[in-house]
Queue: 4 jobs
Job 1
Amino acid sequence: MATVPESQDIGLWYYNIENGRSDYELDLIQKEIDSRYGQGTFVRKLMKPSVGENLFSKNILYCLIYSKYRTLRIDIRNKGVGNNIIEQSVVPMPSRSDRPSWLPGGICLESPAGEMKIVLRCQGDGELDIRLRGRDERNAEGKRYPVWIDCTYFAVNGEAVFEETKTICHDRPYVYRKPAVDGEVVELAFRWEECHSSSVLEENNRLQSELKISRQKEAEHTASQLQDVVAKNKRLSTDVANLKKALSKLRQSHSKIRSKMQEFRIGAYLKYKVLSKLMLGEMRRRYQEKYQEQKRIYRAIRKGNR
């Protein structure tokens, strides 16, 4: 009967599911559980501290939620330009086997089986790099959280590398390296189980504390940014008010200038009219004087002729 350790149950369940609600398959799990055991079972029983023991004993629950607690990830790489590895046999068949671009000349395997034997052949001289990890699990915010695995046995070519428990996760892998020779056949053997270490609970409590501190710092940073934005808005409002005042003064100055220009135009026109009249009167006066002078001369001439 598959059971989930206390440390994983408390530490990871609340951190991953209840607090973060981070599992991407959560909705599918809820539908599956509710369809099998009645509507509302998932929320009523699984999402509460007192989790129903009857549901823990069901293989469907273990497979859907807790298989990741038994899944070991093995990254194997033959370091060197153009080097590679060829897996000749993997028993039992892994749940995942691929060659990601970020692992050139290597292979990435995952399995919840609890044990595995691998026979591989090296292509090219280099360095065989083997890393034992937990799965890469992330919450809704994209932050990776640890899924711990207890590795209990690791052997290379029949020689034990370790036989004591090594507690690992994705970001704290166990790393093994050895020289790789072109054409060399390497036999690997692994055994592992779900984590039983009491340090896992402490680690997850620490992670929860760090997450709270991180969220608090993020909130403080957001509040600080908001205060900066408010201060900038106030400064902008003050600048806009000052610009409006300056514009108002410019409009008043412009109005005064227009008024003075209008007065100048009116004054100039009046002066023109007055000067015109004065000049016209002067011309008339001179004309009259000349006319009278001519008239006198004309009369004098006529009088002398008589």
Job 2
Amino acid sequence: MPVNHAMLGFTLLELLIGLLFTALIVLGIAHYFLVSTQVHLIIQQEALAARTLENLLLQAHFNGQSEAAIQDSLPSNNCPNEAFVNGLDFTHWCQALKELPQLNYSLTSVPAYLEWQSPTGIKRIQR
């Protein structure tokens, strides 16, 4: 039986094209994971900021204090030693200070807002 050498194995060009396609697929998957990780972080930061702002505004409403009084009670860049200060719960605030870089806020402006530096730029939540 004669052996046809053209039908045995791969040529070097076929191998290189296969490796190129494999490398492109791996790069695509790596890019997808990078983007999905950034999106996940942004979603977590937005949820934390919204929850923190809602919590502070609800405390102002239910404690009978004004937003200005709440804002004056907030420690600027540190977490208080106790969770409750002047009847206010700072649990969400302390978590936001840890997780949201360059946190900025105003409860007395209309609308009230929290602002921070996210991976894609400055983000702002308003209520």
Job 3
Amino acid sequence: MNFRILCVLLVLRAACSSAFAQSYEYATARFIESQSSKLSQGAIVDGKGNVTPVPLGSFSLTARSNAQTFEGNQRTMTSLINDMVIQGYELYSITTGNGDAILTTFMVFRKPKEEE
């Protein structure tokens, strides 16, 4: 293929893809589950910067069963995901981790930006 034709095709492709590129509004949610009731909490930051705290239950490493606490926290997170979907967001990514008796979950939501 001629080099000039290849260059023209690449420029056209770049111009078309940027013309149809979707811009998004992002929101994040962070959850920390811990033995400490002060540390066990969540927060949602929407695309406009508004922060909504989310209370979570704390667990105990010495308890025989933490099932109710973890199930309650999971219900809270599931409810949050459903609420975000109702608001037009999609769950874009999720990461989890754990440390010294701390479980963390970080979610990123996105929705197409409204045209101004």
Job 4
Amino acid sequence: MRSFGKKKNEKKNSPACTAVLRKRGGFFRAGRFAAAVLVVMLLVTLFAGEAKADGGLLEGSVWEVLFQTDAYPTKGLIQSVCVTDDYIVTIENTADSADYVDIVTAYYKNDHDRNGNPVEQYSVANTVAAEEWEHGNGMCYNPNTNEIYVSLYTNTIPENIGTIYVMDPDTLTRKGSIKVLDDCNILAIDYNPREDVYYIQTSGERGYSVMILDSNFQVLQDLGPESTDPGYNFQDFCVEGDIILQFPLTLGLGIGEFMTAFSLSQNTVVDMIQLHFDELGEPYLEPESVARLDDSSFIVAVNATAEDNTRRCVFYRAAFPNLPMTAAAEETAEESVQAETAVQSESPAALNTPENSLTEQSESAEVSVTKGSTPLTITPEKPEKRSHRTVAVLLIILAAAAAGMALYLRYVRAERARRQERIRARRRIAMAKQSRENDEDEFDEMLYRDFANLYDLESRIEE
């Protein structure tokens, strides 16, 4: 009986077969290593995105003081601001009560009035204290109708729930009201002249839902509730393209003030920065409202209250280099009048004229203004707990693609090596079979069996 040096039931492989197995095992070890690297990269990306979100829409914003009120004539607070062709208009809520009238003020937007006469820019053009505007939490201007629309937020007058007031931008008086919703109030409002649609945000009863309205104030789309994080409510907002700029209400929480960028298409907050108004000196600060000022910047109204309850409002110009802004639509005065006439004729029932029209002169209140002489630049900070999802997702995709390519290339090399080993194994098997047939001494059955088992060629051994 010929001895082949090893018993058939022994499990030890030959050196050649062990080398092949080592190469195959190395491939799987490399795959596990690459997978581990990928996981680490993903975790690092996520944590890095949480810690810092560079290049966000609000990153690198520049703020400067335009002007400020020296003191309020009452103990009220300016709640909203909007910009027309000629004026910057504000509403000061004196009290959430139907028994008190609120104060509407128009400041000159330009260094000349509508007739071209020179005026001091940002000085008071008109002040009217004759009507109650509820809380007056938000407002917007429609150049096509030449009207200002005010979101009330409160309904001290019960029938005002879900109602928008209409203001004449020239007289600063109420023209009528529009009923939009029946089950909640409207917190904020803005108008998109390019799409001819309005954007509103509901009060907490509807979860601060963002809705899109057509030109007749009919609901086109309800985007659903929005989280107030990191605050507990919202101020007024401003829509620019796909982005809503707004301030979560954080007054009293001791965490500072924030501005968020909410994406309409993604239906989520995509960026957030923390604001610092320490230079104002007052302990109680509240960014109330934001509106588009021109083609490159926004105006922001910030209330500052001192320990003795003395109040003033500081108006900032804020520019966001990373936020795309569309050019304002230009139209002639004739086109504006035609558009206003068309809208009023198409929807006469939408505008409810008050029963008692104003027949006497509106009472005025003096407001003193200080113009911002030296521009003040503020560098907002990114809150550490908010990630920039776009950057994180992009880095994750790049990391996954790189890891996948590395694994694929390693797989290709390993497969090429395996094919070469298969060719060599088949040759050795053929040589071993020939040796056995010739009964030659150099026949190595162990090597023959190992290669056969490795490459599923067991059936060939019996041939």
